[in-house]
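Quick one: structure tokens for this chain, please?
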Amino acid sequence: MYEPEADRQGRLVNHRRACYNPPGPHLPVPLMHVYTVHIDPLSVAPDGDAVLVREGFSWPAALLTVLWALYHGLWDWALVLAAAALAVAGFAALTGLDEVGQAVLHLGYMAVVGYLANDWRRWSLGRRGHRLADVVTGADLSAAERRYLDRAPVLVT
């Protein structure tokens, strides 16, 4: 165990290094992402047609709002997002915002969409009858899928 350095009065001198940089080889730690696993109970596939949805901010949804929704089959949300984008643009035009104000307003819209997009996707899967089967972690989508399939008891033949 690494002991922090102390001065003559016993006060910690280098406590930050003791807490955050222990001695030894420093290996890079892979970033782990959390995914929710949703399965269709009516599916005949052995994996239940599992759909993994990542937790957190979605950059593709923030940048490609309506196209992202259409890609994931969220037709109702695509209409809502298109109407919201038109409403934001109309509000910016009616209030006479300058270019900076319009940019800030649109960036705020994009941030809200990116933050809520995966929750909308989970909600839509639930409306279609998918049920939450598991929560897994992984460095990427394929690692999370492997982790789910390795421990899913229904997949044992």
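The two ends are 46 Å apart (CA to CA).
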